[in-house]
């Protein structure tokens, strides 16, 4: 069997470090062996902790023949340059969402991939790997319940220090934007964002909660509630209402306690608890597909379409109107 | 203790007959002793079955001194005349929803009540008496969970023979229009109605499902999904998302069976199963309040505001725009 | 329609008063119009509160022609004399459980009924009227799940001031003894009682919890956990494990709240909350059956068999051995 | 970081092969590189499929310096010889349950370990690694709910071809025997086994279901229902009733569907689905602990005590009496 994939990671912040630990201590077939970060001193301390080789800059690491694959977990604004560098170097690259903040930057990445004639880019939309969402997709695809007509979703955090009104769509609901499109297999054609009454726990000028409406090519209507200061926990809801039944995302399996005149089941307190399994599956499948020479997960085109929809939703939020989402036809390169 | 309230019922169709049975066989303090119906022969057969006295027309019955209180269960278009007749005769009157199809007709009824200086009219919005909705109201009013910010509701029927696109708002979601306003204690200021993808089971030109959005004075945003051909059962959902928690309408208490690799709990097959308890409580409390000389339930003003909102939602549906709902200040007469 | 049944109640303690209120304020077809109680002064105060006629002793009230039916809610030791008096007077009599503390006293009552050639006695085993238990019975009788093989039950109170070790079987689990036999349609052939570790909250010498095992004619094995100081609430559990599925008694329908990192649904705090509906149905059906001249509910024979089983279980508890339960064949008089 | 642990597996049947796949394709820090099996031809085919080296007999493989650790998945009767061989060779050994069928064989293994002065043996009781059981243990150990008093458990299979009456205790309930002792931290002092009515689906002379009762040092009473032909699915239940609350093992997280007048959540169809996560965690932690030079999981002493209890329960079943379980004090060697 082949040797481990040697992975270099650029961006050693919190998310990057969880991926290093995940890959090096839990998964098979790969090791993160090198790192780079804008903050060299910090990068050195991380390298020392995990036994990695430090590169003074990401491009050098990406270009090094010893590195087989790349993980990009820098600040969003720098995703594009490192992903392009990986494409140029012919290396598989996993880029945390968003592929790039601007839709055009995502498009440039897709164009670079197409020009290079090799699909190399996967975007970190981990919910596609969550066992619960996978069950929903299987139920939809079974055809047993007819067509989806409406989706009712919610994405709630207990609190969100530092969040501003522009952040829920692109930082939080971007996950729904990708996974719901994947669930129903259709593109969006419009977005709206409305502001319900704001919670007293919203800091400063933050409008929270927010509700985003998306409609699809065949008329499916999706509502996604984002509530980042819900106080009570980290909670993800998804109901797919079909012609013959309603399909519901399961809650995590926690022990139920009868105590104090209640039956109580814990809810996650923090986002990091909820999708551990999804991240593990996501990275193991990415490693496996790199070793098989393919990309099976969310592509650069998915990343591009995600940003197109997110930008439309942001514009809808800022103008308080419905914004049309024009989706280019999927290039043959990305058709499965 | 006083004698039973003698009730005359005008309109002996299906709904009317369930109320006759309910009052005469189950509840205390009243008996339906007389009936009238546009179809005299049919009315006679009903009278014979239940041992009632037949009146050739509703006005005569309402005016008869032997009748203490009136129930109006005629076709909607005739509610106004009988309710006005009851007010004129100084009799308590329970009118099934809608108080009258047109908002102006409702307003005329309220004006007649105010002119008569006696509150006599109660409208049949039974969900206010459902134990589950009453629990929600108590939870909201406890203040323990902060202000409501959003409500997510659904009203699903397995099928709806004969339903046309204009019916969901005024026939079905009228119940949500009343009970949600009662739950949160605020008036609506706007309505919208959107059409998701239509189910293949919708007959003819019916657009089904439909989603109605309502906003309130303080900015609470409400969504109500109406799906009259959902196929799977009769299902009512209501989630009140507050600043510190989410409150959820309970499902009916049914035995759970583990069988065939599933754990399954039955859902109501028909609307008539779901609100039996609510109707019983509604009528017993109405009877009790008539005997105490007061009206405690949904008033003619509530009926009027319900129709104002329903008409705005219908206009929103027909024009596919948001329609403002202007709510007049509650007359002192109706303030509790 | 016939006049109301005139009911006399002997025993005006707490249980008796709830039945007076239930019948006089909620149900149809009857009124409690008279009362008697060993404590005459107390009886007078109750009579004044509810507008009843006082009788200086129960026998006089029972014999009075104006009284059509009798409710016996005295101390257990006095049930026999009043039930026999009702039989002698040819009056329908509802006797709260136990029919009588001693099995032989129950048998005497059955013999008196048989000798009088009129079935007049109903025993207050209200769980047969609980909607949840009725659903279980319908599921079992559908045959869809095969034969019951095992039942796993629990009867938990938050606390039980004054309870002694002999009380759980005859005061608490007597309800399971009756309803489970009714559910599965078979008699018991043995009883055992074991003592798990005792809770620190058990007062004095009380052994709590206790578990009772019953086996039936066809070998069905039943376990009933009694835990009278469970602390957390009033909780009733019943699982019927059949050849092809497991049937589960539903929990009361309460609003679920997501708050403080939990989803929580309230559990009853007190026994009186849990079976309100059952008591209402029980008494309305008893009133209806009296007016129809029959007894449809738990008979004196059911009361006798219940005490036979309870005494066997008590003996099993005291001797810490398995005790056989010999059930006489049901007299034709009691066969339905 | 150290090289991978080289594991040799003796016994290449179904269970053994799932462990080879698990370790070689999913986990970290080890590879199964060699195998042996009584059936040499079959062993060769397995070796070829997984790229392993074949040994003509297990002892040679265990003795080979290249092998660092051993997994024993032979027929139960041969566990002892291979575990003793591993102890003799100073190699860590994971032995699937039972450590050995006979309690004395288990004791010999423990004595050999003690004599070798190195703890090397771990027994495959994977439920200790199931996230749900781990939650229960944490809840018990929090002390927040007081002492456990009773445990109510069930272990149900949809069917069990070839099962005979002696198999449920030692093949099926052996898992409860170990995990419940671990959960509550006490030894058993008695066992009983009773036979409820047998299901019509039990083949031949098989008595199914069976219920095992265990009592512990402090009086905790445990019931375990074994139902191997339950028809409806693979279902594991565990309720720990404590002084201040009841703790309930969670069900797997599956999507809930509203369809056909039910809300339905799937139950596992097969045992292999239910404990996948537990096996993964079990083996990863075993590999990690081998590499750290310790045994952290169920020890040979746990294996011995498990068999002592299982044999007592088997004797209780055969004699239909309660059998005392005498537990020797834990040798210092095994104290943590």
CATH architecture classification name of the largest domain in chain A:
2-Layer Sandwich
Largest interface: C-D, 35 and 35 residues
The major sheet of chain A is characterized as:
7 strands, mixed
Give the overall form of chain A: globular
CATH topology of the largest domain in chain A: Dihydrodipicolinate Reductase, domain 2
* Radius of gyration of chain A, taken over Cα atoms and rounded to an integer in Å: 20 Å
Number of strands of chain A: 15
SSE string of chain A: EHEHEHEHEHEHEHHEEEEEEEHHHE
User: Which regions of chain A contain 5 or more consecutive residues with pLDDT less than 50?
Assistant: none
Quaternary structure state of the chains depicted: homotetramer
Looking at CATH, the homologous superfamily of the largest domain in chain A is: Dihydrodipicolinate Reductase, domain 2
User: Widest sheet of chain A: strand order?
Assistant: 12-11-7-10-9-8-15
Strand content of chain A: 15-25%
Structural class of chain A: alpha/beta
Function (chains A, B, C, D): Involved in the oxidation of myo-inositol (MI) and D-chiro-inositol (DCI) to 2-keto-myo-inositol (2KMI or 2-inosose) and 1-keto-D-chiro-inositol (1KDCI), respectively.
GO molecular function (chains A, B, C, D): inositol 2-dehydrogenase (NAD+) activity
EC number (chains A, B, C, D): 1.1.1.18, 1.1.1.369
Pathway (chains A, B, C, D): Polyol metabolism; myo-inositol degradation into acetyl-CoA; acetyl-CoA from myo-inositol: step 1/7
How would you describe the overall organization of this protein?
The structure is a homotetramer of 336-residue chains. With 336 residues, the first copy, chain A, is an alpha/beta fold. Chain A folds into 2 domains: 5-124, 3-Layer(aba) Sandwich (Rossmann fold), CATH 3.40.50.720; 128-269 and 306-334, Dihydrodipicolinate Reductase, domain 2, CATH 3.30.360.10. The first copy, chain A, is 36% helix and 23% strand. Chain A is built from 11 helices and 15 strands. Chain A has a 7-stranded mixed beta sheet. A 6-stranded parallel beta sheet of chain A has the order 3-2-1-4-5-6, with helices on both faces. Chains in contact: A-B, A-C, A-D, B-C, B-D, C-D. Chain B binds chain C through residues 1, 25-28, 51, 131-132, 135-136, 139, 145, 244-260, 265, 284, and chain C through 1, 25-28, 51, 131-132, 135-136, 139, 145, 244-260, 265, 284. β12 of chain A pairs antiparallel with β13 of chain D, so a sheet runs across the interface.
């Amino acid at each position: 069997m082949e040797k481990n994939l040697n992975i270099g990671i650029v961006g050693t912040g919190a998310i990057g470090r969880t991926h290093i630990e995940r890959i090096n201590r839990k998964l098979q077939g790969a090791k993160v062996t090198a790192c780079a970060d804008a903050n060299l001193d910090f990068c050195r301390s991380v390298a020392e902790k995990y036994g990695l080789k430090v590169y003074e800059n990401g491009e050098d690491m990406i270009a090094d023949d010893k590195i087989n694959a790349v993980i990009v977990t820098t600040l969003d604004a720098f995703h594009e340059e490192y992903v392009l560098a990986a494409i140029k170097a012919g290396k598989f690259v996993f880029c945390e969402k968003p592929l790039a903040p601007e839709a055009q930057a995502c498009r440039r990445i897709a164009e670079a991939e197409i020009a290079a004639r090799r699909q190399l880019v996967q975007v970190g939309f981990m919910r596609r790997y969550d066992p619960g969402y996978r069950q929903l997709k299987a139920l939809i695809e079974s055809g047993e319940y007819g067509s989806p007509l409406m989706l009712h979703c919610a994405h709630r955090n207990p609190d969100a220090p530092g969040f501003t009104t522009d952040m829920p769509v692109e930082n939080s609901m971007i996950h729904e934007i990708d996974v719901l499109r994947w669930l129903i297999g259709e593109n969006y054609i419009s977005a709206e964002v409305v502001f319900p009454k704001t919670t007293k726990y919203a800091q400063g000028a933050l409008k929270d909660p927010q509700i985003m409406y998306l409609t699809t090519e065949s008329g499916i209507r999706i509502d996604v509630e984002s509530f980042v200061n819900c106080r009570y926990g980290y909670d993800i809801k998804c109901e797919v209402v079909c012609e013959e039944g309603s399909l519901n995302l399961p809650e995590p399996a926690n022990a139920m306690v009868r105590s104090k005149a209640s039956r109580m089941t814990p809810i996650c307190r923090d986002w990091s608890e909820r999708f551990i399994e999804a991240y593990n599956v996501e990275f193991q499948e990415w490693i496996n597909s790199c070793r098989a020479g393919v990309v099976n997960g969310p592509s650069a085109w998915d990343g591009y379409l995600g940003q197109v929809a997110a930008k439309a939703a942001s514009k809808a939020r800022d103008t308080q109107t419905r914004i049309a989402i024009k989706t280019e036809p999927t290039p043959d390169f990305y058709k499965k």
